[in-house]
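> tool_call: predict_assembly(chains=two)
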Amino acid sequence: MVKVNYGSSRSIMRITLIVFLSFLAVFMLFPFIWLLMTSIKPEAEIVTYPPKLWPTRITFKAYVDIWKAIPFARFFVNTVVFACGVTIISLLFDSFSAYAFARLSFPGRDILFLVILITLMIPFQVTMVPLFALLHKLGWLNTYAALIIPRASNAFGIFLLRQFFKGIPIELEDSAFVDGASTWCIYWKIIMPLSKPALATLTIFHFMYNWNDFLWPLIMTTSMNMRTLPTGLALFMGKHVVEYALLMAGVVLSLIPITAAYLSAQKYFVQGIAMTGLKG
Amino acid sequence: MNISISSRKKAVAYLFLAPSLIVFGVFVFYPIGFALWASFTDWSLINQSPNFLQWANYSRLLADSRFWNAVKNTLYYTLGVVPVGTVISLCVAIAVNQRIRGIEIFRTIYFLPVITSTAIIAIVWTFLFDPDIGLLAYYLKFLGFTTQGWLRDPNYAMPAVILVSIWKNMGFNMVIFLAGLQSISESLYEAASIDGANSWHSFWYVTLPQLRPTLTFVIVMSMISSFQVFDQVYVMTRGGPLFRTETVVQYIYHHGFETFQMSYASTVAIALLLVVLILTILQLRVLDRDIN
């Protein structure tokens, strides 16, 4: 806590601060408000000059039409499958590896862990062209496999879970081992249930990252039916610039799930984001 | 008996590791090696029998004015986003760290852009800057700016992209700074105020030095992500007008997926990798020094 010595002008400082924070809040919210207002305006009202923020007449036509104008339902399903697919598989694979790194002993453990950490330094853009060529060769372009499988394990996830697993008291496993439990059983019945907070944070991290991702689905999909929400909407904008309300309705609908998730699990979101701070 | 148990244990460990190792091997290490190899050849999807070109792609890169233009634009973007974005986020973090009732609402609002998709929110900003329907363009006109719309103006397109990026990432840096601020021991401030320090002094002599690791982290992270900027540029300008917003990743994309000169795209990518690696190593060193 930074202590500011307000002295006698304490309340003036406080009011100034709140005024500043409110102005900033308006600036931060402005695109969202404009977006919402534009999505419920009749098309004619959007293009009148000078532009206005508040609609004089409200219509939800765009929210109905968007589903027919573009394969919006497909975009939605694709994004859900992509984001959930990566999240679930990656949590599983990462926790396997993290468990091995945290608890099992085998030759080459430290070197392998270092090698995995090194991948954190490699920007995805460096590998994207060969990756595209590889998946093209495999005939995977425009499939969920191409979107999900190359992302099925994540160095950051392994690192984070390994740290968490190491913090779990080993006595719990020892007694289970004495009772004849297998390694798998210990991992699945003891370690995983105890790691719910770390898993929850990682779930949000993976889900949000992939739900929002752009460049990866952009190069992996060429067919309109396989586009995700960000790629589908961005390319729709490139083609049909005239139907503003339609596009804005699509944007609003695409933002609803992630915003709802954020508002209901804010703590985990902020934690998940702040944790990328460890990524370096 | 013991040997068979321990070799069984090893086998189990490798089984646990196998899925991740396969994914990393096939989808990270193989493409990296491939990119490195391709940068010395004329390989592409349509070229079935690539020739070894030695350093030809690299000498082309050094003489490629469009590449250097992309480097210049990326540096311009980085110099716009990193210092301004860092200072603003730090100020905001200090502001929302005050004990005021309802301050959480501001934090929630400031963080909102962080959870949205950059590409999708860039669509909204594109229209806000649009001279025909954009409200922001309309407001900017009153402030005496051009009427043509920032994204279509070669001199204002990059500042517009920078503005959007700062808006989008402010909440992210704010959260990191907030965590840093809250980890500073209260007793340091008490000691400072006993010594007669005013709030400016305690900021300058307590907060800032204590925040150094966080500051380094935020600056280097923003630099690394700035060098990789793509989504907002692709959506808002596609590198235009007059290539004034074309960035390095945009240029990799251009050769990889538009002209299909994939080996040359890999050469640009390797150059990007070198810069990012240098920055990362620099960060690790500085952090290491700060911790010891």
